[in-house]
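Backbone-to-sequence.
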């Protein structure tokens, strides 16, 4: 009898402990359609709200915040997988289609890199139906594999910024959506493979490769390739591949190529297309953009991700005699002033040869070339090498 009472007492105490823990863990507020809620974030605190969506359920989140806000957003599923993210100082709304039923969370938080960590506030509004903006016009559309993909532009006005949309539908059901801001005719989304009648033969070959390859990513599904240009010089190009399966969610593969394009150059051995782009990591690094080395990179899709194929990029190694000759010529253009920090004070990007060697399969020769080219009387060799390797790590070579 005493043992039985003791067990009940222990069970009761454990129940109180777990109940207290449950009470202490507050769930994110579940928003109803049409709800507007205030939020505030700072360096220590984020704001999170949840919505319950069916498969292909639509969510539009709009927020008000100052134009110079440092607030970012993320939309994640119940497991924490991030489905969408962006900068709310750049965008004022997010559009989302649920790939599966469940509770999804939008989190607003301060940019970790922001210099000012003070609180920033705003309001968030949730809607579950998509309404085409009054000035929206369909500028192009494609019908592929039972889907309709529409490109919609909403021009800006003196008081209202414009928008650019990609709307993917199967019948009357919206399956996915892309959105960005828009302020000029050269910005926004466009279908890859579009070409003028009087275009050069090389452009027509590229267009034919895109248009005649139903599955460009090699995952077994037909897809549509899009190009997005956000405006600005020497930057801002992103490619999207919209997967169109017989059933299930519509995935969108994103490839940010920055300063470079992304051109198909042939078929990949394992399916899909093989693409050529350029390395962006060294743009403006110790050199003007015009002089920045941007070596060619071959990309192929693997498990939905465009990855570099260094085996396809490999080339025969140059002889040591050739390297010594190049190093001697490049060394004459390097001053003996100490290298103390990254700055644009080199006459010539001698590291272009190093990058070419690394990207064509000869990293060992790159370091030998560096030893040959760096003037013995110039301080800062170790600092330059550390900066070079850190920049290299942020490019395609580091991503492998």
């Amino acid at each position: 009898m005493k043992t039985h009472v003791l067990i009940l007492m222990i069970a009761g105490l454990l129940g109180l402990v777990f109940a207290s823990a449950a009470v202490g863990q507050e769930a994110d507020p579940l928003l109803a359609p049409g709800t507007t809620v205030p939020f505030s974030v700072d360096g220590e605190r984020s704001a999170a709200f949840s919505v319950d969506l069916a498969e292909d359920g639509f969510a539009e989140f709009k927020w008000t915040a100052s134009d110079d806000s440092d607030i970012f957003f993320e939309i994640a599923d119940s497991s924490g997988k991030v489905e969408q993210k962006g900068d709310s100082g750049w965008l004022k709304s997010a559009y989302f289609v649920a790939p599966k039923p469940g509770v999804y969370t939008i989190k607003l938080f301060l940019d970790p890199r922001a210099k000012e960590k003070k609180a920033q506030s705003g309001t968030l509004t949730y809607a579950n139906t998509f309404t085409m903006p009054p000035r929206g016009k369909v500028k192009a559309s494609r019908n592929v594999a039972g889907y309709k993909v529409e490109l919609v532009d909403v021009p800006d006005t003196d008081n209202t910024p414009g928008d650019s949309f990609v709307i993917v539908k199967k019948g009357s059901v919206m399956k996915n959506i892309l959105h960005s801001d828009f302020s000029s005719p050269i910005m926004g989304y466009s279908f890859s493979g579009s070409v003028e009648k009087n275009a050069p033969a090389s452009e027509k070959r590229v267009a034919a490769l895109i248009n005649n390859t139903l599955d460009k990513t090699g995952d077994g599904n037909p897809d549509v390739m899009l190009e997005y240009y956000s405006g600005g010089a020497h930057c801002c190009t992103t490619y999207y591949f919209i997967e169109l399966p017989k059933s299930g969610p519509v995935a969108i593969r994103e490839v940010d190529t920055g300063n470079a394009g992304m051109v198909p150059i042939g078929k990949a051995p394992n399916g899909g297309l093989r693409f050529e782009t350029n390395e962006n990591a060294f743009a403006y690094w110790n050199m003007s953009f015009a002089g920045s080395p941007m070596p060619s990179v071959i990309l192929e899709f693997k498990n939905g991700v465009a990855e570099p194929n260094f085996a396809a990029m490999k080339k025969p190694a140059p002889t040591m005699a050739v390297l010594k000759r190049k190093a001697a010529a490049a060394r004459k253009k390097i001053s003996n002033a100490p290298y103390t920090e990254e700055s644009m004070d080199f006459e010539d990007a001698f590291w272009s040869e190093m990058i070419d060697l690394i990207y064509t399969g000869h990293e060992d020769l790159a370091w030998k070339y560096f030893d040959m080219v760096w003037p013995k009387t110039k301080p800062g060799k170790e600092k330059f090498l550390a900066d070079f390797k850190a920049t290299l790590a942020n490019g395609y070579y580091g991503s492998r």
